[in-house]
Design a protein that fits this description.
alpha+beta; 7-stranded mixed sheet; 3-stranded antiparallel sheet; 10 strands; about 40% strand; elongated
């Protein structure tokens, strides 16, 4: 009787562990190409881009403006290359303050060392609700957008107002 009871408890524990590991959200969601723009959730890539901006030796770009309309974030950048060389990376974390906060970084990848000396203007568009999914209501989240080529940060509130923290 005791053996049968302990076997059931063991089986129940294994089932609970299996369910908990299968429900664990991996923070390395596959990148999604969205209208030529790479948008991804990856804490490792986010941390790499943020650390690299201290000693960035690639082609710098400028974030000219960040505009939020509803759940759509439009990031105006001026830089080299094509829009397909830019990416927006979310670290996958939502800071549970009020309002909730999320951090994004814009990165630029030079394909095979090709340099384009001409500066171009691009609009990187991010659907925040699609990015956050069911984890949060995007209209309640404040978003910090960082430049991956230099220290330049912009905070966008849910109402669309922006500020630049020091």
């Amino acid at each position: 009787m005791k053996t049968q009871f302990s076997q059931r408890i063991t089986l129940l524990l294994l089932l609970v562990l299996a369910i908990s590991f299968s429900c664990n959200r991996e923070n390395n969601i596959a990148p999604e190409q969205d209208l030529g723009l790479l948008i991804q959730t990856n804490s490792g890539e986010y941390n790499k881009l943020m650390a690299a901006r201290e000693t960035f030796d690639g082609t710098p770009f400028e974030i000219k403006e960040v505009v939020r309309t509803g759940n759509t974030l439009k990031i105006q950048v001026t830089g080299a290359g094509g829009i397909e060389n830019y990416k927006v990376v979310w670290d996958g974390l939502l800071l549970e303050s009020y309002p909730m906060q999320a951090k994004l970084v814009v990165g630029y990848d030079v394909p095979d060392g090709v340099q384009d000396a001409m500066l171009h203007n691009y609009t990187l568009e991010v659907d925040l609700q699609k990015l956050f999914g069911s984890v949060a209501n995007a209209s309640d989240v404040t978003v910090q957008v960082s430049n991956g080529s230099k220290k330049q940060d912009t905070v966008v509130d849910p109402d669309g107002s922006t500020s630049s923290p020091k």
